[in-house]
Structure formats: C-alpha cells, structure tokens
Recover the amino acids of this structure.
C-alpha cells in the first residue's frame, strides 16, 4: 500500500442504511460527504445532507448537517459521537471492545440479551461468554439483530427455545469490530435439519457464502447429527428459512433424512469442555447452468477482505440516498 | 488466513474449568490421530536416539505453530521433550520449543490468539497443526511482493519527505483442509 504525500480521493455510494466501509490508501486524515439526492429538495424530512470528520476524533464521531424539514436549507450542524465516522487503520484487527454485562438471555427465537448496548448495532457482531445456564453459546460470536438502545439486543440467528438451550441469567459480551480478515471464513452452526434431499444449515454469524461453494460440515457427537461429520456438500441455495424462521442459512446437497437429528448439548456438558459444530469452506463446485455455462466463478477464492479507510456509520447517512465523498490527506507536522 | 478458515479442535482434556481447556496429551493425540487418519504427510523425519544422557528420540512430526505464551503449558504436557533434550541439534529450528507425540511446536510472539473467546472470556490460543502441503502461498506469475521506496527528491522543492509502500500479488490458501487443524486451548489457571 502506498499513497502520495498530499492527495484527495473521491467516490460515491448509495446508502443501504447499513454501515458502509470506504477503502482508502493509508494515512487519510479528513473525510467529507454530501447528499446528492436531496440537494435542493424542499421535502418534509431531516435527511443527512453533509457529514465531516477527522482522524483525531473518537471512533463514531462526526459533524452532521441535517436537512431542514420543508426547506432547501441545512440545519445548524450537530456533533454526534456514535454512528458517525470511524477511521480504520486495519479492519483485520479484531481486538474486541470493552466488556459489557448482560442481566439475562431470553428463551426465544431469536434470543434477546438484556444489558448495555454500547456500540452494539444491528448487523454487528458480539462475542458471548460467562453465560451460566447456557454455557453452550459461551465463546461464540453472533450477529446482532434488533437493538433496543440501552436495554437489549437480539442474537439474530440463535433460537434458545431449542432443546437444551435455556434462558440465561447473566452474561458478558464484547463487540467484535470487524469480520475475519480472510474470506471465506469458518462459521459456527446453530441449527441443522433435513429438507427433502438436502440439509439446511443455520449459522451464528452472517455467513457470506454463495451458491456453488463447497463446504465441509463438522458435527461432533454431542451435537447429534454425527453422520454428517466430515462430509462435504455443495451450497445449492442460500437464505432459505429454517424451522425458527432464520434466513442466515445455506442449503447443501447432503441427504440427511436418515441422520440423527441435530441438537445442542446441555450447559453442563459445555462447561466441562466440548467441540462445536461448524462449517468450513473448502472449495467450489464447477456448477454449470443455462445462465452460467462457464461453471467455476471462483467465488470461494481466498481473499483478504480487510481494509484501511473510513467506516460510515448509520447515523451519518440516510438510506437510499446517493452520497459523494471526498477524502483528504496532508502532511502532518 | 488459518485463523479465519481452518477447521478447529478444542482442547477438552484439561482441568481449568474453561472451554477450551489447557492443552493436554489427550488433545495432542486427538489432533495427531486426525491428521494421520487423513493421511497427512509429516514435515520432519524423526531424530534417532543416541547414547546421550537426558535425551530421547523424536518421532517424525507435523508442525504446531503457536504463541510464546504457551511456554510452560507445553512443558506440562505428558511426554513433552524439550528441544535441548533432542539427541542432536542438527535438525532443530530456531523457533522450535519441543515436541509432544508427533507434533513439533514452533512458537512465536506473533502467534495466533483469539481474544476473549473462551467460555470464561479468556484468550484462546490457536495452535495450527499442519502436515506437509496443507497450505501454501500462491504468487501471481512470480510477482510476490514489491517494496517501493521513493527518496525525498521526488517529494517537492525542499525534498522534505520520503515515502514507502508495498504491493502484494500473492495469497495464502489451504490446499488440503483435512491436513491442517487449529488446536485451540486456553492457559491453565
């Protein structure tokens, strides 16, 4: 990676209402955004029009200019300290954030963790541990679902109504700032079931796999479906709802109809030390079709998905709007 | 790359009350049994015993790549042979700490650690136990990597600033997923 001593970079993106990563060359110190879609609009909304921030600001901070409702003007800019801009030196650094404490984990689909929600955002990742009564999930990462600020958040793809998963009374958790450095990543299984001649597998973190990828399933004896342990299968579909209604799934061409049902072990078993069930990506099946007659798309190619640059939080953008951004770099003296 | 994608085996033979536990002989045997059962090739031939006091022969072995925090933990594993107790030092590596069963452990201060990932929130140490040709670095047409230095004369009229940069055209890749396993452990209390 290299960069000129003084430089300006620019680009654009259409907000999807989710955290947006802008990859930049190293050393950029100022970042600005302008809402192109709403420029000149007199509509009755307060969409985010301007955003700016510098590298010395705390992570998630920004100076925001919201549109004045009903007029083509910008309200007095406000300072935000969460959901703004974060200058990222290395997104592959998965150092967890500060420990937070939860009071309970509900028995529900998805499970709800009661507790503080500092930097816990929908779509983000938390690492759970110290979970008495439900030690089966201790040490695992989960994608976050709905967040009730300051009160609770969902573990989006965990159904704690399944056998042996019970409500927990306390927990600790830490926000994991980014996904693993390399794609495709290994993912922990939270549920698995036969479906026609295939198997639907639910994972705890958004998997990112694509149709055609080849995966190997590991299912230790304490998770029931031992017959599938070590088998490889081709992903034939993604996003099929499982029995709990979760869609962070892959469907693989493994006929598990005669296999022992998948099931979680007890909390006591987990506390004594155990293996986990997980999916490991191992390659790609050259699946030819009418729309893709050339087969192998190299979707499974190992690639470094980490970045250095700026992360735009949900508080610094309005969904559906086109933003043009400009990044500045100068010499620090 | 291995931390992101390799299969893993938790140590469960220890007694520290965590999951995974500290590393024990049974855990090392489990990973060796798995690698051997998958016909993984060992990296190193054995070291034949010699009539030297305090030494012991060393089995042909796979590599175990870990963090230096495991010093002391490995010494407590049943059957551990310290590098200095090998019959001869000709085939040892600088980073090598010792051997248990068919694993020769290489430790580094930048070994892989997953923070706060155990049942009790402790750090989990990843020991990558690999057979020969389990993973590789693929270079594009021999490009590999470039380190680029621009001296100050290219900066401006006063030649105040130099720049350095690098470009990579290589990627690590697991070539046989059944020949490498991440043996995860915590430290004993």
């Amino acid at each position: 990676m290299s960069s000129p001593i003084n430089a300006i970079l620019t680009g654009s993106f259409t907000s999807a209402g989710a955290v947006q990563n802008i990859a930049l060359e190293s050393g950029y110190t100022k970042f600005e955004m302008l809402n192109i879609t709403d420029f000149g609009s007199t509509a009755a909304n307060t969409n985010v029009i301007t955003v700016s921030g510098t590298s010395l600001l705390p992570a998630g901070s920004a100076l925001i200019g919201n549109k004045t409702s009903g007029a083509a003007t910008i309200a007095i800019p406000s300072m935000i300290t969460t959901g703004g801009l974060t200058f990222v030196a290395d997104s592959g650094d998965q150092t967890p954030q500060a420990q937070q404490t939860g009071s309970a984990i509900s028995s529900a689909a998805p499970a709800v963790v009661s507790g503080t929600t500092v930097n816990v955002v929908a779509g983000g990742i938390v690492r759970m541990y110290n979970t008495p009564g439900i030690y089966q999930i201790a040490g695992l990462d989960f994608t976050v679902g709905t967040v009730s600020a300051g009160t609770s958040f969902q573990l989006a793809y965990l159904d704690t109504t399944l056998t042996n998963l019970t409500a927990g009374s306390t927990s600790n958790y830490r926000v994991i700032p980014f996904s693993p450095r390399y794609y495709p990543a290994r993912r922990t299984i939270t549920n698995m079931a036969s479906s026609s001649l295939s198997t639907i597998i639910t994972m705890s973190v958004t998997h990112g796999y694509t149709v055609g990828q080849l995966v190997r399933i590991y299912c230790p004896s304490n998770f029931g479906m031992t017959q599938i342990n070590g088998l490889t299968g081709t992903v034939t579909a993604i996003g099929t709802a499982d029995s709990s209604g979760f869609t962070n799934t892959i469907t693989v061409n493994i006929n598990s109809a005669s296999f022992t049902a998948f099931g979680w072990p007890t909390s006591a078993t987990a506390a004594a030390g155990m293996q986990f069930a997980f999916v490991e990506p191992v390659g790609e099946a050259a699946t030819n079709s009418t729309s893709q007659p050339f087969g192998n798309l190299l979707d499974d190619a190992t690639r470094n998905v980490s970045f250095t640059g700026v992360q735009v939080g949900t508080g610094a953008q309005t969904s559906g709007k086109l933003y043009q951004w400009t990044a500045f770099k100068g010499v620090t003296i | 790359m291995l931390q992101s994608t390799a299969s893993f085996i938790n140590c469960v033979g220890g007694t520290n009350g965590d999951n995974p536990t500290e590393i024990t002989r049974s855990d090392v045997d489990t990973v060796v049994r798995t690698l051997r059962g998958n016909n993984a090739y060992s990296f190193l031939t054995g070291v034949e015993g010699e009539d030297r006091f305090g030494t012991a022969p060393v089995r042909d072995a796979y590599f175990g790549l870990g963090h230096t925090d495991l010093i002391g933990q490995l010494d407590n594993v049943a059957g551990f042979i310290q590098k200095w107790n090998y019959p001869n030092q000709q085939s040892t590596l600088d980073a090598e700490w010792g051997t248990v069963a068919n694993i020769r452990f290489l430790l580094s201060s930048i070994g892989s650690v997953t923070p706060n990932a155990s049942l009790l929130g402790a750090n989990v140490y990843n020991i990558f136990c690999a057979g020969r040709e389990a993973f590789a670095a693929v270079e594009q047409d021999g490009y590999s990597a470039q380190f680029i230095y621009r001296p100050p004369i290219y900066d401006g009229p006063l030649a105040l600033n130099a720049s350095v940069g690098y470009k990579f055209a290589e990627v690590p890749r697991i070539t046989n997923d059944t020949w490498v396993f991440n043996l995860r452990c915590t430290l004993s209390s």
Observations:
- Chain A touches chain B through 43 residues (CB under 8 Å).
